[in-house]
Amino acid sequence: MSDKEEEFKVYKEDTRIPCQYGAKCYQKNAIHHQKYKHPPAKEMKKGKITKRKMINNKRKQEANDQVSSISPQKKIQKTNDEMTDKDLYNAVTNIGNNIIEDDDTSCEVTAKSEDSNNTESVENSNNLITIASLLHGGDIENRRYLKNGEILPSTAKEIISHLFFIEMPEDFFQLYEFCKSICERDPLNALKIVHLQLVGPYDVFGKGFINAKVENKEALLRHWRYYYDPPEFQTVIKSNTKDGLHFGYWRDDVFEKPVFVAKNKAAVNCIIDPVAENIFGTLDVHFEEKLKLATPFEKTPIAQLRQKLKSFAKERNITLEKRAENMQARERETVARTFHKAGIVVPYDKKTQLGYRNLAVSNSELQKLLKQIEDAPALEARKIPMSKLDEVIRLATIAADECDFGTVLELGHDLFSSGVFSVQTKVLNLLSLAYNLLQRSQFLEIVTAHLRNRRRSLDLSVIQFN
Predict the structure, then answer these.
(1) Active site (catalytic) residues
(2) How many CB atoms lie within 10 A of CB 39?
(3) What sign has the CA pseudo-torsion 388, 389, 395, 398?
(4) 112 contact partners, CB below 8 Å, separation of at least 6
């Protein structure tokens, strides 16, 4: 018996699970090589071990392993599967009830006055509760944070953190200060000359916010959350245009400061385009773009507004730089670009290549699969592409089990950004696994709330002001 035949015999008798990448595996992690067996390279080329046999052997071994023991990651996935069957039915039903495919009217801004604080898109007008009631009984006491029924600017940061699960950066509050200097009576609409309005967490500063009504605390996590906004993206400014343009802070971890401010046109596509390091730099870019398209009559007031913004920023040492150092550093840490192009960042060890591996399919192949699922005329026609997607998900879950958490996060983001209704439960499964493993539980709460009532509308306030 030759050496090669001996190696092949040893490989066949090895009871470990075959590595999905076979002889092409690039993993250097010792734990990976202890758990999975790898075939002799030449034997793979000769085809003596077929891919189908490897998959079958792997599935048999996985079935045996599940009887004896389940890893912590698998336990999380099992919990998520149980949640899909029981708890997610209502969430998916709500999503289906609120998505109107190919309906042009769903992408139009509801006609209303820019000066009005009222909204016509509040969810379930019956049985609403006040914002004040959400502050009672928690870590926040109304008496400490209020004056004459209004939230004090000095304590707004804690209120926002309590209600929206995120902390806003200093430039967020500085922009409100700037807008107040422009229009003290109505700071949230101070930028209406360029068709912009402060929304989302900025509504905390709105008149009568403390007595405004909302369905429940979870609903606030959907407040001005557009259709393609992942939990890492928090909208703070919207444009009153039909393309659904809006701006928001992007952060890779809920406990970290935002790495940039980005924009998305919700009525156009899922692309999230980083603009600048902070909200002032972002507005400076937007004002510049507006000036190029403005009529002679419009140019003067826009130019004056831009100059006021620059002066305000200069006095407070606020940078207007577009590609700041931290944005460039984040770009180097991005492990996957994703469909929305903003990319994702996870802990990744370059030496061991632990933390992320590529998906089992390319972006174009995944998009093709999702297109087939979306265009399927009936459930039967959807089975084949859905089974192929399930295999991609299975391999991504295995990657997570081997500590490549970024793979399931990437796939979850891609399916979310596709907007395909039929895979929304899979989105929540994948992101549940990813955010639990990455210890980003607040993001999981946000995306869960979003998927319960994900809407293509451009009027996305959930707060009813009196």
Answers:
(1) 402
(2) 21
(3) negative
(4) 118, 119, 120, 459
Tokens found for residue 115? 């000066």
DSSP three-state, residue 429: helix
Candidates 423, 414, 332, 409; CA nearest to 372 is: 423
Identify the three-state secondary structure at position 313.
helix
The Cα angle at residue 152 between residues 190 and 263, in degrees rounded to 5: 40
How many CB atoms are closer than 10 A to CB 383?
12
Burial class for 94, CB neighbours closer than 10 Å (0-12, 13-18, 19+): middle
Give which of 204, 196, 258 is closest to 233, Cα–Cα: 258
* Residues 165 and 445 sit within 8 Å (Cβ to Cβ): yes
Rounded Cα distance between 180 and 202, Å, is 12
Half-sphere exposure of 9 (CA within 13 A, CB side): 6
Give the whole-angstrom CA distance, residue 316 versus residue 178.
Answer: 11
Q: How far apart are CA 125 and CA 275, in angstroms?
A: 37
Residue with the two structure tokens 């926040």: 140
The b-or-e profile of 251-262 (16+ CB within 10 A means b, else e) is: bbbbeeebbbbb
In angstroms, rounded to a whole number, what is the distance separating the alpha carbons of residues 117 and 422? 36
Give the DSSP letter string of 163-232: HHSS---HHHHHHHHHHHHH-SS-GGGTTGGGTEEE-GGGGGGSTTGGG-EES-HHHHTTTT--TT--TT
How many angstroms separate the CA atoms of 176 and 377, rounded? Answer: 49
| Torsion, CA 84, CA 90, CA 93, CA 97, rounded to 10 | -150
In Å, what is the CA distance from 282 to each residue of 204, 312, 462?
A: 22, 14, 26
**In whole angstroms, what is the distance from residue 87 CA to residue 289 CA?**
46
pLDDT digits (tens, 9 = 90+) for 72-118: 344 334 434 434 433 443 443 343 333 333 333 322 323 333 333 34
Residue 195 amino acid letter? H
The pTM score is 0.75
Residue 71 CB contacts under 8 Å (≥ 6 apart), including other chains = 401
Extract the tokens encoding 334.
């991005």
The residue behind tokens 């039967």 is 380
Please give the share of the chain, as a percent, with pLDDT higher than 90. Answer: 62
Q: What is the largest CA-CA distance in the chain?
A: 91
- Contact in structure between 281 and 320 (CB atoms under 8 Å): yes
Contacts of 17 (CB under 8 A, 6+ apart): 35, 36, 37, 57, 58, 61, 62, 65
Reported as a single tens digit per residue, the pLDDT across 359-377 is: 999 999 999 999 999 999 9
Cα-trace Rg, the chain: 25
3-state secondary structure of 380: helix
Length of the chain: 466
